[in-house]
Amino acid sequence: MAALSELLPVEAVRLDVPAADWREAIREVGGLLVATGVTTDTYTAEMIRNVEENGPYIVIAPGFAFAHARPSPAVLKTGLSWVRLAQPVEFGHEANDPVTLVVGLAAQDSAAHTAAMASLAKLLGDPDTARALQEAPDPAALHAVLAGQGTASSAGQGEGQAEQARPQVRRGPAVHKILTVCGNGVGTSLFLKNTLEQVLDRWGWSRYVTVEATDTISAKGKASEAVVILTSREIARTLGDLGVPVRVIEDFTSGSEVDRALRETYDV
User: Fold this and answer.
1) In CA terms, which of 29, 179, 224, 247 is 20 to 30 Å from 213?
2) Cβ distance 194 to 118 under 8 Å?
3) Bond into 71 cis (ω within 30)
4) Coil, helix or strand for 203?
5) What are the CA-CA distances from residue 85 to residues 117, 147, 154, 226 (Å)?
6) Disordered: where is this region (predicted)?
7) Which of 145-154, 184-193, 224-233 shows the lowest mean pLDDT across its residues?
8) Which residues are catalytic?
9) Exposed/middle/buried for residue 168 (C-beta within 10 Å: 0-12, 13-18, 19+)
């Protein structure tokens, strides 16, 4: 699987870009995807339509939007783009507006960029690294941080260890599966999956709990297999009552918030 630095070349990074609104911000990341041979112009329209149809669930952390759409013929290869805005813009998210960072993702399938999503989740979940990315003076400096040349701290990694012999669910099926859900199943759900798996690793529960990233349509069919669903507020509204707990996560980079959601689900 491709690394983050491979999917996001320096040429796909622009800093301090002016944008009048969220649509123009997405057009900026879409333009970089086109310029680097990742997509056609059609994909930019698909990313905008995704927000129009599903709401601003792509704003997965304070100030951070993860623009993407489903795999389609408009995606020529898997890749990323990165735009830091000169002035923040509103996407309409209840908790995480305004947005200053927009990352664009184009994926040919749900597997090619998994490693990159894990790396990005760890970087943005670390306060020191996130600050280094925000303060990078030019694309080359930012790319160096993304390539792992920045430092990482242990901050923001949850609320401490909670290792148990076995998880005990308050309700739900016996199989310990957690679903992370987004509109398309290839972007924000993978991001949340990676943060959740980091928390499960710290708890020592990775061998007891599996995590599956999926889309809203598939989630409705798979809900009976899960003990809990983690997702955004917008997607939770779309899912409705599926017969299992649905926990809203506002900040997909926050180990602490995911930790609390797990504690609400399990007898910890």
Assistant:
1) 29
2) yes
3) no
4) helix
5) 21, 21, 28, 38
6) 148-171
7) 145-154
8) 68
9) exposed
Q: Give the integer Cα–Cα distance in Å for 118 and 131.
A: 18
Tokens of 117: 């999503």
The answer to whether the CB of 136 falls within 8 A of the CB of 126 is no
Residues 6 or more apart whose Cβ sits within 8 Å of residue 64: 96, 99, 100, 101, 102, 103, 124, 253
Cβ-count burial of 137 within 10 angstroms (0-12 exposed, 13-18 middle, 19+ buried)?
exposed
- Tell me the C-alpha distance between 71 and 83, whole Å: 21
pTM for the whole structure: 0.83
The answer to whether residue 152 scores a pLDDT higher than 90 is: no
Cα 73 to Cα 101: distance, rounded to the nearest angstrom: 27
Size of the chain in residues:
268
Helices 255-265 + 188-203 axis angle, to 10: 70
Which two structure tokens, joined as six digits, stand for 259? 């930790």
pLDDT score at 177: 94
The three-class DSSP label of residue 125 is: helix
| Longest distance between any two alpha carbons in the chain, whole Å | 53
Three-state SS at 62: coil
Contacts of 92 (CB under 8 A, 6+ apart): 22, 55, 56
| Residue 104 contacts residue 65 (beta carbons within 8 Å) | no
